[in-house]
């Protein structure tokens, strides 16, 4: 090596230096530079507009459950008694039709054993097959109200049936496809209104649509400033289609729930379906709450 370097100096030639390969680095985020790996739609002046829409809609689903309890020395009699209590109620609610009120019932049983005190005075169950004192049967009914205008009457019917306990009354918004389509359309319109106002205020005119992205990904800052080299990941490229349409929906947290428990003396077997007078006497005001639906859209326009 020394002889080669000395020979090069003697001959007046420049020494050759072999450099180690440099690590790949992110390109500079200069919009317009020919070698920036920017999306095709950023070659010309553009404006990114995010349209947003928010609407309050009444919850259109309600859920409530109740249970009936029966205790007997015979497992068959306990189950029959519990089933009799829930049968009349389920038949009354099923009369509305499955498209308005859906009813699910079930019956479970468990043994109740004789009890004794151990050497420490603690009461314990004598869990032996020959030490079963009685059987407890629990019949439950789960009700889904698809027509919320009936929720007050359905709930009053359950209360008038005198169950052992009544669960929470829950409301939920289950939007129809047409509602979601309308929200997306309004978000698109809002994006155009914002873009037109911004272009006019900046002394420009709106050009043709370049990208439609309701997910909002294209309008993020890391896309517009040095994408993809300056993205959060730092190295993964993302392919953006020329026309892409997706949607999203965010629901508000559920409202406070109503819980009711019937006192023990009232929890007796009902002889049949409650009367109209009993239903009206148990009627309470139950108004479905308003819940929020939102949607957004990102639209990229060219500028003239």
Automatic annotation (TrEMBL):
One Pfam family from the record: SIMPL
The UniProt entry, under InterPro entries, shows:
26kDa_periplasmic_antigen, SIMPL/DUF541
UniProt key word Signal = yes
| Residues of the signal peptide | 1-19
Q: Name one GO biological process term.
A: DNA damage response
Keyword check for Cytoplasm, yes or no.
no
Q: Which domain of life is it from?
A: Bacteria
Which keywords does the record carry? Signal
Q: What is this protein called?
A: SIMPL domain-containing protein
Q: Look up and give the organism this protein is from.
A: Brevundimonas mediterranea
Give the classification, highest ranks.
Answer: Bacteria, Pseudomonadati, Pseudomonadota, Alphaproteobacteria, Caulobacterales
